[in-house]
Structure formats: C-alpha cells, structure tokens
Amino acid sequence: MKRLLPPFALMLCAQAYASDAPTAAPATTSVSTAAPATDLAPAASRTPLGDFSLRTLDGKKARLSDARGKVVLVSFWATWCQPCKQELPFLDALAKKYADKGLVVWAINTDGPKTLADVRRVLSTRGLTLPVLLDDDGAVAGRLNPRVAMPLSIYVDRAGRRALEHEGYAPGDEAAIEQRLVALLAEAAPTP
Amino acid sequence: MTRAWPLACCAVVVLGPLTVAAQETSLRADERLVLEWHGDNRNGQTTDDHYGLALQRLTLTGASGALRTSAQIDGELFWDAPTADYEDAGRLERVAVEYDMPLRGGDLTVTTGDFHRQLGRGLVLSLRRVDEVGQDVTLQGGQLAWSGDTLDVDVFAGRTNAAEFDAVSQHAVNDPHDVVAGGAATLRQLTPLQLSLGVFGMHMRPRESLVPAYGQDHMSALGASLEGAAPSGIAAFYVEADWQGRHVAGDGTMAKALYGTLDLNLGALAVQIEGLWLDDFFVRGSRNSAVGTAFDYAQPPTLERIDQEVIDNTNTRGGRVRLSYALLDGALVPYANLMVRENDPGEDTQLDQVHAYGGAEWNYDGGRARLNLSAGARDEVQDGQTFKAMKHAEGDWLSPIGGGHALHISATHEERRLESKAYRRGSSVAGLEKGGLGAVSVEVGYDTSDPSDEVRRLFVAGILAWEPTDAITLRSTVGSQRGGLKCVAGVCRDFPEFSGARLEIVGRGDLL
Fold first, then answer.
1. Which residues contact B175 (CB under 8 A, 6 or more apart)?
2. Within 10 Å of residue B300's Cβ, how many Cβ atoms?
3. A66 assigned to some structural domain
4. Is residue B266's pLDDT more than 50?
5. In a domain, A123, yes or no
6. Taking a contact as any Cβ pair under 8 Å apart, which residues of chain B between 464 and 503 contact chain A?
7. This prediction's pTM
8. DSSP label at residue A7
9. Shortest CA distance from A112: residue in chain B
C-alpha cells in the first residue's frame, strides 16, 4: 500500500494539469462570436460523457444519445439536499427560457427508498415541471458522480461531450450557469 | 476482489470487438485523498486515539461508443495504529464493463463485473450506490437488461462485494460473497392513469449459514408494484406487495410486506400519505466483520425523517401524513407531518412510536437566500412507559451579503430522554461562503449524554473549504467534532467523536 500513495499524488497533479489546461486555453472553437467568455472546456478538448438511460418520473425513457444535437444540463439532486432544492427552481426557469434554443435540463434524482416518496411533493409544492429522472439504484450516479456529491451539474454539449462539471450551488452562481448554457447553445450542432 | 480481473478481462475481450467503428474515447479520473490525524477524542476509550490515516479512492470511468468501463481503486495507510484492527490495505475494489446494443426495438445492456441493483422501493433488495458513510455493496457478476419505450426487463446474478473499508469504524470489511440472483419486468404508461405494473423477484444464498449443521440457508422473495398518476397531476400513487420465504438453520419462515404512497396536489395544498407494513420481513446476508452484524441487503422506507434513527425496521406497521401549503408561488412552504409506527405489534416487546413535526422552507431574495426552520417531538412508548423521547429544533439560514459572499448558519438542538436519563445534543455551524472559491466555517457541538469528567461534552472545530478550480476541492477540519448518530447523504451511522486534523483533497479530470 505504501507504494500506492505516490502514484495517487501524481494522479492529483496530473488531473490538476489536465483540468487547468482546457480552462486556461482560449475558446477558439466556439462558432458564435456573441458567446460569452466562460470556464467551459474548449470544444476540441472535450470527451464523450458516455451514454446512459433512465426513466422519468412519469415513466418515459430518457436516453442521452437521443438528445444529441441539444445542450443537456444534467443535475444530480435529492430531496434532503437543501442547496439542490434552492437551485431547482432556477434550473426549471432556465429549461423553459431556452427550450426552443435546444436546451434540455435533466434533474437526476438520487433519493433512496427512505425518501423517494418525497420527490413528487418537492416538485409540486414548488411548481417545478422540468424532467426528473429516477436513478433508483445509483447506477448512473456511480459512473458520473462517484462521490455522490450534491448538487452536481454536468454541462453536455450538442455532440454529447462533457464541457464542464461543477459541484455545489451557492448564491450568485446563477449568472455563471446561464452564461455557460448560452455559450453552449451558441455552438453549432454536430454534423451527422 | 482481485479475482474480478479475469472476469473483467474476459468481458473486454468478448465485448471489445463488437465496437466495430472507431469511436471517440474518454477516460476520466476522480480521486479523493483524505489525510487524518486523530488525537485524544476523550470518548472514554483509548483504542481510537493518537494515530494517522491516509485514505484514498480513485475512480476511473471510460467510454467508447456503446462500451463503458469503470474501476475503483481504494487504499488505506495507518501511522501508529493503536490496535491491529486498523490494517493497511490497497486493492482494486470495483470493475465494471457495460455494452449497449439495439435489440427488437429497444436497447439491450450487458453488464459484467460490479453493478448496483434495487428492486421496487428497496423492500426486497436494495444494493444502491452510497457514499463513503454508507456500506457500499455491489453485485459482482452479470446483468442483462432490455429497455423499450414502455417495457423494461432484466435478469441478474452475482455475489455481493462490499467496499472493504468501513469509513466510520475505520476497520476492514471482509467481502460477504453471498450469492444473489433475480430479475424484474415493468410495463409502463398504461392508460388512462399512466399506470406502471412491475413484478420482481430474487433468491439469495448467504456464504455463512447460521448453523452449518442444518444445511445451507437460503431465501427467496417476490414482489409486485403498481404506480400511477392522473394526467392533470392532481394525484399519484405507488403500492407494492412482497412475499418472502426464508430457510434458516433448518426452519422455514414466510414473511410479507406492504407499502404504499399517495400524493394529492390540491392547488396550493399538497397532501402526502405513506403507509408501511412489514411482517418479520428482512433480507440479511453474512456477517459484516467491521460492525459485527449481518449485511442488510434491503432498505425499506421507514416513514421517519431522514435524520432520525430507526432501531428496528423489520416487524412494523404504521403511516404518516404530511400537509404542505405553497405560498408566494412555492417560495414559502409551511408544512406539518405526523408519523405513527408500531414496532413488534402484538408482541411483549411492542414499541409505539409517534413523531410530530412542522416547519417552513422559504426561498427569498429572488431565490438566492433560504431560511428553513423546523421543530417537533418524538416519543417511543413501551409497556405504557416512555422509553425514549426527544424534542428537537433545526434551522438553516443562507443569505447573500454582497460581493459574491454569503453567510450560512445552521443549527440543530435535541432535548433527549432515554428511560430516566435526560441529556442534550446539538451542533451549530456558522460560515462565510463565496461561490466558486470556498468557505470558512466554525462548528460548535455539544453532547451531555455521558456526564463523566473524562468524556468531552463541548466540541469546537474550524473548517476551511477551497475550490481553486472546478476540478479540485480541498477541505480541512481542525478541532473536535461530536459523535453520535449523523445522517449524511441519506445514510445514518453512529459516528465516533473526532479530535484532530483532517485534510480532504478531491481532484477530477479527463485523462484521455
């Protein structure tokens, strides 16, 4: 085990370098000159998120690859997570505001059996209508959010690639969230 | 776990060639490194003081077209461990390979290696992904899942693979390797109420039988669920019925369970009703070597709030009602909740539990600020005498103060009584947060349950969180933190007191 720690320290440094590099690089691949400057990774350095499929609260199938050509904001949340419940109305408003521009917001719920019954109430009392996907056994969270951090937002571009991952929600994040989405929506759809 | 390598390699060899076209490929790492020094936590024990720990978890996830892979590598390294129960270890904890292919108008997903699976609402089987506070258990084997527009079918089989480090006791956990097989089918969106009809079942053979001389223990369970919602959104329901046959130490036992929820959305008023009946219903495997009790592979709803402990949830009946009223377009939601449970109904050990609480959740300042307040009382009565009682109050306030900063104060207080002993427990955290940068907080806790001089009753800790980039987070804690029951991410565990220093470093990013 003692021999394992140095590689992990190196791994952290490598990750810091890997994650810093795209952030520091200029966003030269954006097709729209009107897109605001953001911390999104440049399109050339983005990698595929990997497909996943879940059922929505009303039983419909939601598959990431079926949303290709749209910008998808994936947000992990739970009913016991106070910052999540504070962020959801804002995400709901964004989903409505930019729906016709090609934005899809998926709120992936990770409640376990002890609190799953609360999901509908949390949505109805706040008047939220955004699609809620149920990750009953945490299979998708296990891949995309292995530390089960909440809230966790993954910005997916029109080609199904991860443009940014952001953990947490604090007052004042709203402007940055909208700016990132506007920038992604301004990018061209991938050629089939 | 090392025997997972051949399994994973075989899967890659078999499934890899199916990826016929050159695809974009990704490989992502998520690393969590925790460095801790434990001083004297003054909990009356000397076996958990004066040692250091380095704990790391590396998760790698890859994707290429229809192929997805993942691996988790864990390790622990102790300094000056006080007993031999603290063991250095490093291992490949999880390996999984998934492949999607179109089949008969739907998608077939083949999974080999480690995977999580829950059936229904977790009464029959609940092996869910949980964070480090919970005991993460996967099935190590294979799963075939087909998903169409309105039908889901899957079959699975494997042996249980526990994360081999218990982060709470900081002791090693031996893999139970109990064999579990099962399957489920769900037909969805049946008109007119968008009904979903599900049937599921599982069979388990624990590696350790209770009395080996009586042969192999085993259990089987079957369940059915019906879920629906009115298109107008005015009402939604879920009901589940389960049957179980257990064969333990030569004796056969039949058990039953029933669970249901009803949501009524009556304009501003929302009514939520939940009912539970468990008739000696549980799913337990081999013994967990870190905590000394059997692995619990089911996780039924408890009717309780998530921050409340439930002593026993195997032989119980009860219900709860919650009324919520939305004001200011849902920005202010006052609510009241009443829960009644009977544990071991009709037995000498019957315990009657009542928990009433209420409060309000308020988002204001355009949603940027929040104030949540709640308070309630809980009683547990046995033989006409109050066995356990608690009055509690909680508050959580977050308010922007300009310049991107926010003030965050949260507090809990409990007045508890266990038989004739009365004590107080609680904690408060006050912090200054800045979005995208981090937070500095002070936590003060207290626990008067043990009046002896050598046990600490007041706890003070400073917490510093820093997010230099979206990919790296650091969190350091110095001081002492109260022990007792804490519920983190939906998992309740009894934590030991902590005194010392802790540094957590999280990094994530693309490697390819």
1. B1, B160, B161, B162, B164
2. 27
3. no
4. yes
5. yes
6. 467, 469-473, 489-490
7. 0.91
8. H
9. B490
A192 within some domain? yes
Q: How far is CA A28 from CA A8, A41, A189, B487, in A?
A: 33, 11, 16, 46
Q: What is d(CA B489, CA A115) in angstroms, rounded to the nearest whole number?
A: 11
How many separate domains does chain A show? 1
Shortest distance between the Cα of A141 and any Cα of chain B, in A, equals 7
Q: Does residue A42 lie within any of the structural domains?
A: no
Closest CA to B449 of B423, B471, B487: B423
Is A147 in a helix, a strand, or coil? coil
Partner-chain contact B471 A20, CB within 8 Å? yes
Handedness of CA B146, B147, B152, B156 (dihedral sign): positive
Q: Which of chain A's residues have a Cβ under 8 Å away from the Cβ of B194?
A: 58-59
Q: Determine contact, residues B148/B136, Cβ cutoff 8 Å.
A: no
Mark residue B373 as left, alpha or beta (left: phi above 0; alpha: psi -120 to 50; beta: remaining). beta
Write down the ipTM of this complex: 0.92
| Domain interval for residue A112 | 81-192
Question: What CA–CA distance (Å, rounded) separates B297 from B311?
Answer: 16
3-state helix, strand, coil split of chain B in percent (to 5) is 5, 65, 30
Six token digits for residue B1:
């776990």
DSSP symbols for A151-162: SEEEEE-TTSEE
CATH number at residue A136: 3.40.30.10
CA distance B207 to B416: 40
**C-alpha distances in angstroms, B482 versus B102, B311, B388, B460?**
53, 21, 21, 9
Whether the per-residue pLDDT at B489 is higher than 60: the answer is no
pLDDT band at B12 (very low <50, low <70, confident <90, very high): low
Q: Return the sign of the alpha-carbon dihedral for residues A94, A99, A104, A110.
A: positive
